[in-house]
Amino acid sequence: MTGRPADRxxxxxxxxxxxxxxxxxVGVRFSNRELDPLWGAGLRFGAAAVLLLAGTALLRxxxxxxxALAGAVAYGVLSFGVPFAFAYYALVHLHAGLxxxxxxxxxxxxxxxxxxxxxxxxxxxxxxxxxxxxxxxAVVSQAPLRASVPVAALxxxxxxxxxxxxxxxxxxxxxxxxxxTMNAVGMTAAAVLLLAGSAAVRDHWxxxxxxxxxxxxxYLVVAGSVLTFVLYLVVAQRWDASRAAxxxxxxxxxxxxxxxRLDDEPLxxxxxxxAPLILLGVYVGALRRPPxxxxxxxxx
Length: 300
Hints:
The protein is mainly α and 300 residues long. The chain has one domain (5-288). The chain is built from 14 helices and no strands. It has helices at 5-21, 24-32, 37-58, 66-93, 96-103, 106-116, 124-140, 142-146, 151-171, 179-200, 211-238, 241-244, 247-262, 269-287. The two termini are 26 Å apart. Mean pLDDT is 82; it is low at 1-6 and 292-300.
């Protein structure tokens, strides 16, 4: 990273988004205790979309049309609609720290998808990192499977990983939009998708009665959606796709601390052994940069 202002802005946005996103999975767990999953997700992103659309109007940002509008809708479906439908379902059955640890695979899957779509190159390190991360997932999965957690919950998390990763790759192909505008359109599209799914499965559309659920919902809307994803898109537009997705590796550290403190998540041996394997695999496969060679004229 250089000292250019864009890099400093990207680094600050990265740190802030990772910190704020750390509370998301915990907030979803609290929301799921009173609200049906798809209804809670749709309510969250519907409220966030209203705030972002208001911000777009106040800032007098141009509204996208044509290809830019279609791209923003596709980004929203892949970044918010599909993955959070999966994640909300999974977090009914899994603790937040475990769920966020599996989501740490996003940078590695992003690199694999970017390589498949010829945005980045696939290296031997990426292959080795993939094997290490897969071993980590196998380890962390042992405890929930022994506890009779539905396999579908783990598969849903992997579906969320795939969708998040493709959204990051897609962001590099879309016409450039202001992060507020992009997220306003994207979250609107996601809210429509999530609420349609909620209606299809006949969720109960009720507002929370418990104070804890209201606090969780407010956090998820303001900090976990509006601020987190605007900041993350700032990073994604400035850094390589796989590097921007590194935020998914930092977030589990914050989530594990909050989940153990607020949701009594047990720090099992499989989690404590498997999580480092996942993080190591992601680092080796997607994030580590080989040392650059000096120019030929500078070599001794």
